[in-house]
Design brief:
It contains six helices and ten strands, in the order ββαβαβαβαβαββαββ. It is α/β, with parallel strands linked by helices. It has a domain of 149 residues: 3-Layer(aba) Sandwich (Rossmann fold). A seven-stranded mixed sheet has the order 4-3-2-5-6-7-8, with helices on both faces. Helix 1 links the parallel strand 2 and strand 3. Helix 1 runs parallel beside helix 2, helix 1 packs parallel to helix 6 and helix 5 crosses helix 6. Bound molecules: 5-O-phosphono-beta-D-ribofuranosylamine. The site of 5-O-phosphono-beta-D-ribofuranosylamine has 13 residues, from helix 1, strand 6 and helix 6.
């Protein structure tokens, strides 16, 4: 079944509302803020949501004037309880798109269901290779010659949703995990804003497990 995304709120020249979920350093979040500020992405970043009160992303949000919601994962008795708090916080954003940018929690069924076709994730490997944690370490351990990054829609699988864009990064003989991660990160910072731009321009069509860019 072909599903033209956001037909009802297709590209109308209006800026889209995006909300970002991040758990740590937030360099991808920063790349999104910068791309919006430079006019490369027709969007407004309406909120940062983080599960980690110590995330440096919070400081970046302050600097950029982006409102921030902290839902401290460790203050909940269970992952379920945390997810029950996350869902209304996300709904409150009234966002067209949710961007997982270094968000280190599994996203639960209810949250996925609430935002089908409206939630994307950046992953530091060429999916479907090396889903889950430590994509860069897995690439080194497997001796692959090429790795990279992937932006994909989020579904109920682990890093398995329809792929929007990818960029390749050669793995050098001298690379260790950190060196490879640094070079991949550079590409993440270009890939993620690009995928958001395509979404905001109404150019992404989910076609089964594939994404067509029109
Ligand atoms: C990135 O490599 C992202 O792909 C992965 O976690 C890292 C987060 O980095 N999911 P940052 O917080 O955006 O700097």
């Amino acid at each position: 079944m072909k599903e033209a995304l956001h037909e009802s709120w297709g590209w109308s020249g209006m800026t889209k509302r995006i909300a970002v979920l991040a758990s740590g350093r937030g360099s991808n979040f920063q790349a999104v803020i910068d791309a919006i500020r430079d006019g490369r992405v027709p969007a407004t970043c309406v909120r940062l949501i983080t599960d980690n009160p110590g995330a440096y992303a919070i400081e970046r949000a302050k600097q950029a004037g982006v409102p921030c919601t902290i839902i401290d994962y460790t203050s909940f008795p269970s992952w379920d309880a945390y997810e029950r708090a996350l869902l209304p916080a996300m709904q409150d954003c009234n966002a067209d798109l949710f961007v997982l940018a270094g968000y280190m929690r599994i996203v639960g069924k209810e949250v996925v269901k609430a935002f089908v076709g409206r939630m994307i994730n950046i992953h530091p490997a060429l999916l479907p290779s090396f889903p889950g944690l430590h994509g860069q370490r897995q690439a080194i351990l497997h001796g692959v010659k090429v790795s990279g990054c992937t932006v994909h829609f989020v579904d109920e699988s682990l890093d398995g949703g329809p792929i929007i864009i990818q960029q390749c990064v050669p793995v050098l003989k001298v690379d260790d995990e950190d060196a490879l991660a640094a070079r991949i990160l550079d590409h993440e910072h270009r890939c993620l804003p690009e995928a958001i731009r395509l979404f905001c321009e109404g150019r992404l069509v989910i076609d089964g497990r594939r994404v067509r860019i029109r």
